[in-house]
Design brief:
The protein has 168 residues and is α+β, with helices and mostly antiparallel strands. It has one domain. The protein is built from 4 helices and 9 strands. The longest helix has 23 residues. The two termini are 26 Å apart.
Length: 168
């Protein structure tokens, strides 16, 4: 097995709007804890319990940590394509070249086609996308379709062409 990495890309959630929303929600819940628990002033007209505030704040903090740690790693070797969408995948998910009928780049609409970004399952299609609207479309011999988002489309296409694997 030739494990030389010919293409590598790591993507993270960098959309400003995601971070504005997450940090805004965290700020509100932390302020609520400060006002109600530290200062002893009920937070809001119908305040929730101290336990409720702590649980809510913990959930929003964990969600923020989830987005901070999330990443999509894509690697291409002579043996195939490896992807890891952490934290959904702990180990690489491998697609051997003999499993792939077609591999090509295409533009897509994350919201219209997949309902947003992230790990998306639709029937026999799976999308792994973090940002952008260009992806590597794989059509597998078992009829499954895999879309892997990329921010390096020309480099990815060039690698596939060099390998003789770019098939539309």
């Amino acid at each position: 097995m030739n494990k030389e990495i010919l293409f590598s890309e790591t993507q993270r959630f960098k959309q400003i709007w995601i971070w504005v929303i997450l940090l805004g929600i965290n700020s509100i819940s932390i302020y609520g804890i400060y006002q109600q628990i530290v200062l002893g002033i009920p937070y809001g007209e119908n305040p929730m319990s101290n336990t409720g505030l702590i649980i809510t704040s913990s959930i929003t903090t964990l969600l923020t940590i989830f987005f901070l740690l999330s990443r999509l790693d894509t690697k291409i070797t002579n043996d195939g394509i490896l992807i890891k969408f952490f934290p959904f995948h702990i180990k690489n998910k491998k697609f051997n070249w003999n499993q792939i009928k077609k591999a090509y780049l295409r533009k897509y609409s994350p919201i219209r086609e997949f309902g947003g970004w992230g790990l998306r399952l639709f029937g026999n299609s799976i999308a792994y996308n973090v940002m952008g609207n260009v992806g590597l479309q794989l059509e597998l011999s078992n009829k499954k379709k895999i879309l892997i988002g990329t921010n390096k489309p020309s480099e990815l296409k060039e690698t596939l062409i060099k390998l003789g694997k770019y098939i539309e």
